[in-house]
Design a protein that fits this description.
alpha/beta, Rossmann fold, 10-stranded mixed sheet, 17 strands, lyase activity
């Protein structure tokens, strides 16, 4: 377990769904943490989050207004920080397609700014959040996140004698996160019609807690340059619609620009560098800066077969309709009734 006693940890994009879940996890399970810093650009979200965590009860929590596009501000924020979780991003696919330059500024240049700010301070470990859309991307959002992944992996090669360690976590749809399909369907249910982009569409499914666990695992176990990928179930979009509103009409509306029918997290080309760690897979850098044999022995890492691929349509584990209903009640809406 990661020891955060007397440590300072900063979360970029800390007012987002995962940032808030990470904050809750750290404050509850690591009460001796020195500081938890929420770095984001939305003052209203910071104000609302501060109401949930009043200073009298959580004196170690700090709020820092800033944008990852501003390297100078990041460097100022990283002073005295031990660990950085980089969760800030533009993530909505259609918005990114329509505003490509803005997406690049945040997701690519922002990632580079985080790396540069770490080099100028004493940050010891960095975990960057990725997405399944970064694997064989067909939309701009995925392309920018793939670029971000490459930047963080390569940062381990150019750090010189700086002891900082960079790693990446990649996973699929977070159940109940802002902008995800389940909250959308829950709102549309009252209209009696649920729009389905494609009847064959599938997605990976992970809970917020599962995402939090992955980040904490990477913070404590990364050697530098790994892309960690969870073994998680898939769901069919039609099953989600049925689980939420079995009485609703499902209307096919067509795939949106930049959308896949099935998401991928590991391609056959990645298989040459992909290892099975048990609970997770990890894609290692092609030229790791540490001893591969020692890594394999320590984590009992087994290389996957050549040509191995991991996508939501060919997964071996699937959510059922009843299982989805239970998960929605547990992770999204405790008042959900079906």
């Amino acid at each position: 377990m990661l020891d955060l006693k007397h440590k300072s940890i900063l979360i970029t994009g800390g007012t987002g769904s995962l940032g808030k879940a990470l904050t809750k996890e750290i404050l509850l399970k690591h009460p001796e943490v020195r500081r938890v810093i929420i770095f984001s650009r939305d003052e209203q979200k910071q104000f609302q989050m501060a109401q949930e965590y009043p200073e009298t009860a959580y004196p170690q929590l700090r709020f820092f207004i800033g944008d990852v596009r501003d390297e100078q501000r990041l460097t100022r924020a990283f002073k005295g920080v031990d660990y950085v979780i980089h969760a800030a991003a533009m993530k909505h696919v259609p918005i990114a397609e329509y505003n490509p330059d803005e997406c690049i500024k945040t997701n690519v240049m922002g990632a580079q700014n985080v790396i540069h700010a770490c080099f100028q301070t004493n940050v010891k470990r960095v975990v960057a959040l990725s997405t399944d859309k970064a694997c064989a991307p067909i939309n701009l959002y995925g392309a920018t996140k793939l670029t971000s992944d490459k930047l963080f992996v390569a940062a381990n090669n150019i750090k010189g004698d700086n002891p900082v360690v960079f790693s990446v976590v990649r996973y699929g749809n977070v159940m109940g996160s802002n902008g995800s399909v389940i909250p959308f369907f829950l709102k549309k249910k009252a209209e009696g019609v649920l729009p389905i982009t494609d009847a064959n569409m599938t997605r990976f499914n992970i809970s917020l807690q599962g995402g939090v666990d992955m980040v904490m695992h990477a913070l404590s176990h990364a050697w530098g340059g790994e892309i960690f990928i969870p073994k998680i179930p898939s769901y069919r979009i039609t099953d989600v619609a049925t689980a939420i509103g079995s009485e609703c009409e499902q209307v096919i509306v067509g795939i949106r620009p930049g959308e896949k029918v099935h998401e991928e997290m590991i391609t056959p080309s990645d298989s040459f560098y992909t290892y099975d760690l048990g609970k997770y897979y990890t894609i290692l850098p092609s030229t790791p800066g540490w001893n591969l044999d020692e890594f394999k022995e320590k984590f009992n890492a087994k290389i996957v077969p050549q040509g191995f691929a991991y996508n939501s349509g060919e997964n071996t584990e699937w959510e059922t309709i009843d299982g989805l209903r239970a998960l929605i009640k547990e992770h999204v809406d405790p008042n959900f009734v079906m």
